[in-house]
């Protein structure tokens, strides 16, 4: 990247509650196959009459985005860029059920209008009266990283100087039941932590995580995004070469990385990809986060927030430590995520000294 890109603010609504300083001190590990996000109070941000008509995903997105803007002290972003795997899933299910129940007649448009994937980004922009660039990426488990790539390009080309970037996904009952049938989600009778997992499937969840990005370094800056890369398919044996090529492009080597963040999710069929990746980083701290966030298409946004918090505070909480290695100084973190052997992503972050 020619133009440096800084993360100045974070906001989130997750299974661990909203983003806050004590989030890892108060976190509880997810052991059930379905974990709902802890919903905050929305009345200060959204009119009560509107709250009733809004899906959970929209409300989470509005809260997390405003928290990120406040944290970064951005009053009006130049662009709103979001990523989502399945969009406002509850409204999608409600609309499809209404089609079946009413024999495709007399359908109210509200659920259809709010079921589209770009609804969250649109509602955020409407609320902020932001008339700038607004784009939503729907690209499976790299939906958030796709949005991040766009944000980096916008800042590098000076099209924008302050961007609201986020990822959001929500749980809906019927979709969860279907994913259980095909072993994408663990069975109801299985209660396993990620480290103890011996079964296929994941513990699923939902959430919204947003970031205030800027090309300007300021007292609120928490970390620098050096680069991001996504790849649909990577052979397990080629992960090391791919990682080295990514680092070489950023004038770095494996020895320059002070910690890695892994997206391990407890699916015994595919966590071996993380084992292969981590085998090159056995001498440094390895961190993980999906035991706190759960697995969903944009859970990697929570992983990015985790890495940023570690870089900013220079402390690795015990609850996110995958191995037992500690580091006195963490200047560079590499985040790796994949889902079911596809949609691989790498994000390189640097610690910054604020003015």
Rg result? 20 Å
Mean pLDDT: 94
* CATH class category of the largest domain: Alpha Beta
Structural class assignment: alpha/beta
Main sheet, how many strands, which sense, barrel? 11 strands, mixed
Shape: globular
End-to-end distance: 21 Å
Overall tally of domains:
2
Domain Beta-ketoacyl synthase-like N-terminal: 44-173
GO molecular function: 3-oxoacyl-[acyl-carrier-protein] synthase activity
Pfam family, one: Ketoacyl-synt_2
Protein name: 3-oxoacyl-ACP synthase
Please give the structural blueprint.
Layout: E1 5-14, E2 17-18, H1 48-51, H2 56-72, E3 79-83, H3 89-101, H4 110-113, H5 119-128, E4 133-137, H6 143-156, E5 162-169, H7 173-181, E6 207-214, E7 223-233, H8 239-249, E8 259-262, H9 272-278, E9 286-288, H10 290-293, H11 300-313, E10 332-339, E11 342-350
Parallel strand pairs: 3-4, 3-5, 8-9, 8-10
Antiparallel strand pairs: 1-2, 1-6, 1-7, 5-6, 7-11, 10-11
GO molecular function, one term: 3-oxoacyl-[acyl-carrier-protein] synthase activity
Keywords: Transferase
Domain Beta-ketoacyl synthase-like N-terminal: 44-173
Keyword list:
eleven-stranded mixed β-sheet, Peroxisomal Thiolase, Chain A, domain 1, 355 residues, 30% helix, globular, alpha/beta, single chain
Question: What does this entry show, briefly?
Answer:
By secondary structure, this protein is of the alpha/beta class. The protein has eleven helices and eleven strands.
């Amino acid at each position: 990247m020619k133009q440096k890109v800084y993360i100045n603010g974070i906001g989130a609504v997750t299974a661990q509650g909203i983003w806050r300083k004590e989030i890892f001190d108060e976190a509880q590990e997810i052991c059930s196959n379905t974990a709902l996000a802890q919903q905050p109070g929305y009345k200060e941000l959204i009119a009560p009459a509107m709250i009733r008509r809004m899906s959970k995903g929209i409300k989470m997105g509005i809260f997390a985005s405003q928290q990120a803007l406040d944290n970064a002290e951005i009053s009006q972003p130049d662009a709103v860029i979001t990523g989502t795997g399945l969009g406002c899933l509850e409204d999608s299910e409600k609309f499809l059920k209404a089609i079946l129940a009413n024999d495709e007649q007399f359908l109210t448009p509200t659920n259809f209008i709010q079921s589209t994937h770009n609804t969250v980004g649109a509602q955020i922009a409407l609320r902020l009266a932001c008339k700038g660039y607004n784009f939503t990426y729907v690209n499976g488990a790299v939906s958030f990283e796709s949005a991040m790539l766009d944000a980096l390009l916008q800042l590098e080309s000076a099209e924008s100087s302050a961007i609201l970037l986020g990822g959001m996904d929500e749980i809906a009952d019927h979709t969860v039941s279907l994913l259980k049938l095909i072993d994408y989600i663990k069975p109801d009778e299985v209660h396993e932590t990620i480290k103890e997992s011996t079964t296929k499937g994941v513990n699923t969840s939902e959430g919204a995580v947003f970031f205030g990005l800027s090309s300007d370094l300021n007292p609120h800056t928490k970390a620098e995004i050096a680069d991001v890369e996504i790849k649909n398919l990577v052979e397990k044996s080629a992960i090391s070469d791919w990682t080295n090529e990514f680092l070489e492009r950023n004038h770095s080597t494996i020895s320059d990385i002070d910690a890695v963040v892994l997206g391990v999710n407890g699916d015994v069929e595919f966590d071996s990809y993380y084992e292969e990746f981590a085998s090159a980083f056995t001498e440094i701290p390895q961190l993980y986060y999906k035991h706190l966030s759960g697995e969903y298409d944009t859970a990697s946004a929570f992983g990015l927030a985790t890495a940023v918090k570690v870089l900013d505070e220079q402390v690795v909480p015990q609850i996110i430590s995958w191995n037992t290695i500690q580091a006195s100084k963490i200047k560079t973190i590499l985040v790796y995520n994949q889902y079911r052997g596809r949609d691989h992503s790498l994000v390189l972050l640097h610690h910054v000294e604020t003015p």
